[in-house]
Amino acid sequence: MSDPSERPSESMTGQDNGLRPLSNADDLSLGNPSNSELSRIMSRAGISLANGFPLDDDDDVEEEVDEEYVAVDQEDANEYPYWFRRPPTHHRTKLDELNPFVQVLGSSNVDDCVAVESAFPEQERCSREKFIYRLTRCPELSLGLFTLPLKDDSKPKPRPTLVGHVIATRTSEPCVTDRSMRLPKEWEGQRWTREDGEAVGHEEVGGTIAIHSLAVLPEHQGKQVGSTLMKSYIQRIRDAQIAERLAIIAHGHLIPFYESFGFENRGPSKCQFGGGGWVDLVLEFGNNEMN
After folding, report:
1. By residue range, what is the domain housing residue 31?
2. Segment 233-249, tens digit of pLDDT
């Protein structure tokens, strides 16, 4: 399944370490104080770094304060994936206005995911029980894009809001199947569930990552959230070399969207989830990209 409102946007590169700021400006990887690009920029600004944070100027010279910067306390730096933010110098997009960052999801995000899934028709939505199962059994295969308002000292610290998500499991099949989408019975005490002699749900050693949901909150559709998430997800899985392929089912009008990321149209899907009418789409990484 996928977000029907998104279309391809500009490319994104760089490995995702689970938590990263996003912008259509250059990616500076703020979590790495030794980053040469960051050092160069800070050097131009006359700012010295110690352990990744600006040092106080020892000279008795009055400093010029750049009002474009937003001050963030040391406590905030440890909690959020940035310790300063500067608006891009070029034209801001709707995605920039969200001040987005991506992060792996977990069982604590179940309610957030249920809210995002409202983007789909009711019969095509992932149930709360399936979110609990997938975000407990294989959270490393999920990814969320959050928006975090800039800090306002006059208001309580804002809570990040999940805007869009990618939810997936593993399967040994080359495409998404109804069995891979099912919720296994009594799964809590089992690593791998078999029913009637066949694997059901997440298969720990499956070489295919079956994407069950690419969804974006309705009020944030049309802001390149879905395409940004998909680019980040593909890059994350490709760099980690943990799968032979990605697979997803989608309706026909979204075929060009997924083909723009390298997915191949494998024809009508046998899945009957949500009433059927799906198309199988697969992105092959190749055996040399899997550990």
Report:
1. 26-87
2. 999 999 999 999 999 99
